[in-house]
Amino acid sequence: MATLDNAIWLTGTSGEAENGSTVISDGANDTTVTASFTGDWAPVTNGGSTIADFGGKFISSQNTANYEFSSPIENVSFDFQHVNSSGSANDDSWTIRAYDENGDLIDSDDIVASISGLDQDTVTVNPDGSVTIEAEGSAVNDVSFNYTGGFVSEINLTFEPGDDASITGGSGISDLTFDIAPDLDGDNVPDAIDIDVDGDGILNEDEGAGDTTLTVTFDGDFYSGSENSWEILDENGNVVASGDVTSSGVETWDVSVPPGSNYTFKVVDTFGDGLGWTSGDSNSDAGFSLSIGGTTVLDNGGNPISSTGYEDFGSETSFTFDLDPLDTDGDGVADYLDLDSDNDGILDNVEAQTSTGDVAPTGVDSDGDGLDDAYDATPTTGAVGSNGLSPEDTDNDGVDDYLDLDSDNDGITDNVEAQTSTGYVAPTGIDTDGDGIDDAYDATPTTGLAGSNGLTPEDTDGDDTEDYRDTDSDGDGISDTDEAGHGVDQAAIDASGDADGDGIKDVVDDVDGWDVNDDDVDGSGNITLDDTDGDAGSGGDFDYRDVICFTTNSLILTDRGERPVQDLRVGDMVVTRDHGLQPIRWTGRKTTIGAGRLAPVRIQAGTFGNHSDLIVSPQHRMVYEGPQANLLFAQPEVMIPAVHLLHSGSAKQTEMEQVTYFHIMFDAHQVIFANGAATESFHPGHQGLSAVHDAARDELFTLFPELRSEPRQYGDTARMVLKGYEARVLDLTR
């Protein structure tokens, strides 16, 4: 219960009321009250004693007080104080206008029913629908107003002389008390009438907040007569459904019951012998059950609400049970109140829409039904026809993306794919403000839904399909499933079941029940996906986002001098630093998008002794040699992925519409020369294999069959490969 103390308005130079606004709180709910006044409002005294907290005395025209509430209120109470009439000398009159949540004048019958304490007073309904209380006698009394009929958004009160006199006496109003209607999404539509309470664009009924269909079954094979019946009662004892058993066979009833606690299912036997009619006989086939979709409902003690066989329970037996709204992720926040129903860090509003056709909420709700106009098929006519979003199911597994922990069915959880590899933050399991978004992803973790934006999903290859919906996140032609390192292919995932219904197929689901990251993240918050070059923690990426190659016209040093990489063929002899001339065993190429993290890196001439700029893929490695390598890493030479050169100023990513990457491979990993700089040949680890097409990969497996089962059998890299933080300590400005 909240209280509005009218004394806060008394800020005028003479202590009179002035217009203003204030925020009133009621537990977790608040409303801004904007007040405006005409006439003189102040405490009213008579003979040195206060007779009214806030009003006027000897008013000849009108005093008006208008209160607007940003969030609707309910259960409004206050008193009209010291109401009386002295005949033609003084006559008090109060007129009430109250408006509902839609700004419509509340019906006069409801206003009249809210008035009590009348004594020599009359109540009149005016032509405009307002209600007037007028004193008709000298007896002084307080008239109470207590409206409990619904929501209120505005109250207007007018104090003026009644019909019997030209001025009023002294009268006023008390403080106002009221409840602030809960409004979770802050759209000024109370939750009780809001068809989209959390404002995610998905209707409450589609998020499991609608009625539940309960099936009542009686099997009375040995039943005779019409003595048995059943009832379902709410926690207040009101009957919400009932039926009479009239057949000795199987009878069923489907009844619709809203969410709630402490429901009672009661079986009544007016004859008093339980199910059946012959006392003491065994009626093994007689029984009853209460079920949802074929599953027996459990009572609040965990016992099934069912009975098979003769039940000698006297006149009745009953069970207490709850019907809780759906809470998919088990975080204690029902889906219809939860901005992130699967707890993967991506807002339901984002996951419910397509990647390319998503529409942000407008913040406008023209018909006041609680559904944003952006998602309302009938934005000006109320709830009828307001259909909300039709949630996406990217992988067509029957689990909508906003409830699916692996929306693209690639075996990598959405929470991992929605974040960068280097910036990954594991969920905390804490939701301070109870909006359903883990504090790790909540921009406003203590203030409810306001400002809660969740993760902005990554799109590695810039194809307008976010990684969590993209089965080839890096656009390299190899599925994320093959690159994840789970040891299963897409066919196995597609054929697998999903016993716990979390959207992660059983073949890659190592955790029974709801775990937003399964085993993709360990207990320390580290991602466990394949990272062949070990650079994911230092600016690089996991294999499913990595590509290692040269670009067109990179000049490779051969026995015939420098030649463009695209002209090289199997058998050509290439100069290597460690093993002289070596024949190329395999070549490959791949054209992909040249934007985002896949944009190639241009290394300035001279950085590594290269005679001209060299353009390579972000994960392609260059050889660094010098005293610092010996001093810091006890190695005369080390390899640095190109992406780790960006901090030095000697390299930058260059976006282009598309880029063709080329690979050359030898019997072992080699240091070769491109544009005069020492660099690497292709290394077919999981990461390297992810950069080639299926046909090229099959060719590789023919040449190197051991790679099919274990790419690491190819051997180590030719030099130690630095991580990002290690590369940053080197002087690359030479």
Automatic annotation (TrEMBL):
Where is this chain compositionally biased, Acidic residues type?
366-375, 392-411, 432-441, 458-482
- Superkingdom, taxonomy of origin: Bacteria
Q: Identify the residues that the record assigns to the Hedgehog/Intein (Hint) domain, covering every copy.
A: 548-686
A molecular function (GO) held by this record is: calcium ion binding
The record's listing under InterPro entries reads: Hedgehog/Intein_dom (IPR028992), Hint_dom_sf (IPR036844), TSP_type-3_rpt (IPR028974)
Bias (Polar residues) ranges: 378-389, 445-455
| Region annotation Disordered: where it falls in the sequence | 352-485
What's the name of the protein?
Answer: Hedgehog/Intein (Hint) domain-containing protein
Report the source organism: Aliiroseovarius halocynthiae
